[in-house]
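General statements about sequence and structure are easier to judge against a single worked case. For one protein, we set the task of working out the structure tokens from the amino acid sequence alone. The sequence in question and its structure tokens are set out directly beneath this paragraph.
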Amino acid sequence: MQSTTFRVVACALLALALAGCGLFPEVKDETAGWSADRLYNAAHDAMVQGNYSRATKLFDQLEARFPYGRYAQQAILESAYANWRANETAAAIAAADRFIRTYPNHPNVDYAYYLKGLVYFREDQGLIGFVYELDLAERDPKEMRSSFAAFKELTTKFPESQYYQDSIARMRYLNNAMATYEVNVASYYYKRGAYIAAANRAQGALVNFPQTPANEKALDVLRASYTKLGMTQLADDSKAILAKTYPDSRYLTGQTDRSWWEFWRKEESQFGVQATGQMAAKPWWQFWD
């Protein structure tokens, strides 16, 4: 009896659900029947207006419906840009990689490499990023290395690219930032009494990132660590190199160019990490500006 009642109730609920489906109008695809040209223009306009979610949706539809031809090519590249601006970094990188893989000989493939570098660079963080992440040297270096690799590939493969000079400037910035990160870690170990780890990290910064502003502090951390470890000769050698390379070093003179009231100013900003290049000329597809 209970089984029969259960079946009756279940059938009634199913019928009600099916009837309810008819209460809602069917969602229609507004782009149904649109040509590739119309789809592209709508997506492009949405991107220009800052409606990146709509832009990426339309670009995806364009690529799916018209997988061949110049509109599909532009859809992938512009979708990568729109995703980046929408902070969809994984989708942006995937689109850029897909473009590079599918169109390795495209005249604008250099922009795909450049965009990858920008995505990992994460320069556009807004007010919150400015307040809480003043420089790249405090971040996990994984993204910095990925950004550097993308710019490096661009400059190696496309020395005539319009993005070459900006990429070189950003690589210099990233190199300085990664060096400073290593020295920050070395200082962290030193302050906690891990002098061997501090010395190894400082030495690694000197070897892997030579001729960077952070080398000054790296030498001082190395000197101080060797002193704590009782390695007098190595400490003296480190100090001698510091004196020869940076004769006016604040670590030797005890002076600093930071005023007492500039408590907000980070020490690392004096290593040259803040310097970066200007954005390159507008992307090839920004003909509207």
User: Anything to note?
Assistant: The chain has 13 helices and no strands. Confidence is low (pLDDT under 50) at residues 124-134, 260-265, 268-279.
